[in-house]
Amino acid sequence: MAIACVLLAASTGSAHRSESAATTGETGSTEQEKSSVAPPTVVEGFGLFQQRCLSCHGNPAFKEAPSPEALREMTPEHVFEVLSTGAMYPVVGKSLSEDQRRSIAESITGQLMGTSRSGAAATMPNQCAAQSTMADPAAGPAWPAARRGPGG
């Protein structure tokens, strides 16, 4: 219900902006007006998922459709690829814009595109080649107050 209210508020706001621009007699579009058309947000992605995808994903009658929980475990790139060129393209993907497919992928996985492997040590360029283990810090010298313990 909350998502529906947010979506309604967002669409009402954009309709109001269009109406006010038309009533002020503006004839040409400025750079500011062109940039005010934002790509779908994550909230809109959830709304699109509910409208276009939830009838199969999460429905026991469609056993081959991964559940929303399973989709959350996937990368946004994978979901986007399936919607753009994979099995779901002819079903629903071709009726969505690229921004809408991206928004659905990012909202259902909870990750932004391009960030799914950003924290993986294996992909970092500045890895230490040495395979040394870190010494136990508790086994080394300590401050005198640390040896006495609390209140000592």
Could you characterize the architecture of this molecule?
There is one protein chain. With 152 residues, the protein is mostly helical. The chain has a domain at 39-115: Cytochrome Bc1 Complex, Chain D, domain 2 (Orthogonal Bundle). Helices cover 45% and strands 0% of the residues. Helix 5 packs antiparallel against helix 6. The chain is elongated. The relative contact order is 0.10. Mean pLDDT is 74; it is low at 1-35.
Say what oligomer this is.
single chain
Number of strands: 0
Distance between the termini: 58 Å
Q: Proportion of β residues? A: under 5%
* Coarse morphology: elongated
Radius of gyration: 25 Å
**SSE sequence, one letter per element:** HHHHHHH
Average of per-residue pLDDT values: 74
Number of helices: 7
What's the CATH class of one domain, please? Mainly Alpha
**Biggest beta sheet attributes:** none
In CATH, the topology of one domain is named Cytochrome Bc1 Complex, Chain D, domain 2
Quick gist of this model?
Helices cover 45% and strands 0% of the residues. By secondary structure, the protein is mostly helical.
